[in-house]
Amino acid sequence: MARSELPAPVVRPVDPVHPSPGVDRHALERELRARVDGEVRFDAGSRAAYSTDASNYRQVPIGVVVPRTRRAAARTMLICAERRAPVVSRGGGTSLAWCWTI
């Protein structure tokens, strides 16, 4: 069997303070904590835990919000839209169904 060379992976450097250009991470965190009924996690451990699923993909989020109510989820979406922060909803975290929402 012939040996083939795989191309080098494409790695995008991530700035841990500003992972999404144009988004003020600290202001976003403050506003979410003040206005959303739920867990607002911007610590490195939570961000790392939510950066992968059962697939080979890894994308470190700006932060993680676990809303307690539907109203809190809607408010989270509004705040992120106002601040132009990207949102990815998370299902079971398996990525086995290939159902991604961006």
Architecture blueprint of SSEs:
Layout: H1 25-35, E1 38-41, H2 44-49, E2 64-67, H3 70-82
Antiparallel strand pairs: 1-2
Helix pairs in contact: 1-3
Features:
102 residues; 3 helices; elongated; two-stranded antiparallel ribbon; 2 strands; 29% helix; alpha+beta
Explained architecture:
With 102 residues, this protein is of the alpha+beta class. 29% of the residues lie in helices and 8% in strands. The protein has three helices and two strands, in the order αβαβα. It has helices at residues 25-35, 44-49, 70-82; strands spanning 38-41, 64-67. Strands 1-2 form a two-stranded antiparallel ribbon. α1 runs antiparallel to α3 (70-82). The longest helix is centred in the last third of the chain and has 13 residues, at 70-82. The mean pLDDT is 80.
Radius of gyration: 16 Å
Largest sheet: 2 strands, antiparallel
Structural class: alpha+beta
Task: Give the count of helical stretches.
Answer: 3
Taken from the alpha-carbon principal axes, the silhouette is elongated
**Measured distance between first and last alpha carbons:** 41 Å
Give the strand tally. Answer: 2
Quick synopsis:
By secondary structure, the chain is an alpha+beta fold.
